[in-house]
């Protein structure tokens, strides 16, 4: 047989999205069930699969939970999340589990969002001059790609310490921030007040004419809240140094802290 007549058969390559994975899901009584699922399966699909296999009634409350004992946390896996992607973030030595049980408040946030985020906890990073109410901001959060800031107090403690501290937190799209001064929430506000007049002008050339600022922008002043009484900072150099110092007092610090699940 000539070389040209030979046929070479290569093994078929299964696309990654079609590859099967085995996951173990626990019930409230700690019994478990192994499921073979595709790599692109969502939490909603896993719930539907378990509902069918167990002959449950689908009342839209069945939920998949991620149980993370090493940080004392359990969270709801949202319907759209890829389960295999969630599992890929688990460490080899961690005793994490998936739980399947009912959560009657699963969609309550979308029905009554103000129960979860009162008006004083919702704001925009940029000044809106009161043109958008907190209720409208929250609706924008639910219906678009705009992300407001959620802020408030949490009780937290660092790993290895027994005492809990009341700390002011700020949740942004980029992460969870907290004030190193504990109950101080004015450091970030001072930084924003100082930087606000300069926002939107960094991309302009030296020949462009800067638009006139509004009266509300011109009325912004740098304030120092570090002492017992607040004061206006009139020296621009001092204002800049304090703003930078206060701005740097905010850090993303979530990996080694434990939180109680309530806002103050």
UniProtKB/TrEMBL annotation:
Transmembrane segments: none annotated. SMART domains: RA. Keywords: Cytoplasm. It comes from the Eukaryota. It is found in: Cytoplasm. InterPro entries: BPS-dom, GRB/APBB1IP, PH-like_dom_sf, RA_dom, Ubiquitin-like_domsf. The keyword Transmembrane does not apply. CDD domains: RA_GRB14 (cd16139). Pfam families: BPS, RA_2. One of its GO terms (biological process) is signal transduction. GO terms for cellular component: cytoplasm. Residues 19-105 form the Ras-associating domain. PANTHER family: GROWTH FACTOR RECEPTOR-BOUND PROTEIN (PTHR11243), GROWTH FACTOR RECEPTOR-BOUND PROTEIN 14 (PTHR11243:SF22). This is Growth factor receptor bound protein 14. It comes from Sus scrofa. The lineage of its organism: Eukaryota, Metazoa, Chordata, Craniata, Vertebrata. The gene is GRB14.
